[in-house]
């Protein structure tokens, strides 16, 4: 999981967004009775599928925003609507305050090429071109001269760890390396936002972990805004500053990994996160009893965003409560009982209640 250093200004603002597939689809969002039908009833009555239903959210500058949900929940449709690769049926979308639905074709092309680049699972590399020329492809489309695009492509190739492979063809690369080429190609155009559609789901688990770490590293180095689709909860928890959890076209909960795991919005979310190792997600900021410890020594001195697993090690090693310290100030204290409460599955609102 990365820590957002971002200001809270939105890159994307989405409000009341709908995407309905099927005949007379535009009638569905406008009709409260039809809009309230569940998926099966809607299909029977109208022949339509509402892939995205009345969804509103902001993607903040510099964050990794994860869209998570089971297959068919509407993730790809939602993210494709952001740049109108799929035309929304109703609602509004803005990027930096500019109305995406009002953009003409050339403005849209500019949006997709420069401002919000997409990295797909099937990366569509050009088989007869070298790695370097594949990475430079987006720059070529932009009309940038050969020398300059090769220079820029070489820089990103190094950034994603493919140095030395510049002259290979895609067929001479592993799946993970090909995905790095896809990532480098998107990065080469230096977009404001990177949109990832399940980019790693075809990779084997170890390579997948490498790629996840790569994304975290790139995000830390560059602070680029990222929207990341996944159906994998662990991937979502690892990468997301915030996660939008989708079900049947709706966002059922939007929050930090800690909020989703610690305060599930309903039984569906609760069931979804049931097996998450809570000690690896919940932070000591949540587990602590707030208030200065009163001493000068601050035993343990944990950072507020340290996870509970780390705190358990510190507390059990020293045999005494540990302080949570930020900017030299003691924010609170964690003891064994509070840490165990978190691990045992107490929800945020209940942690430490009996101890108070
Ligand atoms: N072109 C289309 N025409 C009709 N229905 C569609 C179309 N595209 C998607 N759907 C339907 O919309 C719903 C959401 O699909 P979507 O691909 O957005 O889900 P997803 O969460 O990305 O799934 P996955 O994880 O399997 O990719 C599904 O019920 C799907 O069958």
From TrEMBL:
Q: Which SUPFAM superfamilies match?
A: P-loop containing nucleoside triphosphate hydrolases
Source organism superkingdom? Bacteria
Q: Which UniProt keywords apply?
A: ATP-binding, Nucleotide-binding, Transport
Q: Name one Pfam family in it.
A: ABC_tran
A single GO molecular function term of this UniProt record: ATP binding
Sequence ranges assigned to domain ABC transporter in this UniProt record: 37-273
- Name the protein family: Belongs to the ABC transporter superfamily.
The protein's name is: Glycine betaine/L-proline ABC transporter ATP-binding protein
Species name for this entry? Answer: Streptomyces hokutonensis
């Amino acid at each position: 999981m990365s820590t957002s250093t971002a200001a809270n200004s939105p890159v994307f603002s989405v409000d009341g967004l709908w995407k309905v597939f099927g005949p007379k689809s535009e009638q569905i969002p406008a009709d409260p009775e039809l809009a309230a039908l569940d998926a099966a009833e809607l299909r029977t009555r109208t022949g339509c599928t509402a892939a995205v239903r009345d969804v509103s959210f902001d993607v903040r500058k510099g964050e990794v925003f994860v869209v998570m949900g089971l297959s068919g929940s509407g993730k790809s449709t939602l993210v494709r609507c952001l740049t109108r690769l799929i035309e929304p049926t109703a609602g509004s979308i803005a990027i930096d305050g500019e109305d995406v639905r009002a953009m003409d074709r050339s403005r849209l092309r500019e949006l997709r090429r420069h401002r919000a680049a997409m990295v797909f699972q099937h990366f569509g590399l050009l088989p007869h071109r070298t790695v370097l020329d594949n990475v430079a492809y987006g720059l070529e489309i932009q009309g940038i001269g050969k020398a300059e695009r090769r220079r820029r492509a070489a820089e990103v190739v190094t950034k994603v760890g493919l140095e030395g492979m510049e002259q290979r063809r895609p067929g001479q690369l592993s799946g993970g390396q090909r995905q790095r080429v896809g990532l480098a190609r998107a990065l080469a155009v230096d977009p404001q936002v990177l949109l990832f559609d399940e980019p790693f789901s075809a990779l084997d688990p170890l390579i997948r972990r490498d790629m996840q770490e790569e994304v975290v590293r790139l995000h830390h180095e560059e602070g680029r805004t990222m929207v990341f689709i996944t159906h994998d909860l662990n991937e979502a928890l690892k990468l997301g500053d915030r996660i939008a959890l989708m079900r049947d076209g709706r966002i059922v909960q939007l929050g930090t990994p800690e909020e989703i795991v610690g305060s599930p919005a309903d039984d569906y979310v609760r069931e979804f996160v049931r097996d998450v190792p809570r000690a690896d997600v919940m932070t000591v900021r949540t587990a602590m009893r707030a208030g200065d410890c009163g001493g000068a020594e601050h035993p343990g001195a944990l950072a507020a965003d340290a996870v509970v697993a780390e705190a358990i090690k510190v507390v059990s090693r020293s045999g005494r409560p540990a302080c949570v310290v930020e900017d030299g100030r003691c924010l609170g204290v964690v003891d064994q009982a509070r840490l165990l409460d978190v691990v045992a599955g107490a929800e945020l609102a209940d942690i430490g209640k009996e101890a108070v």
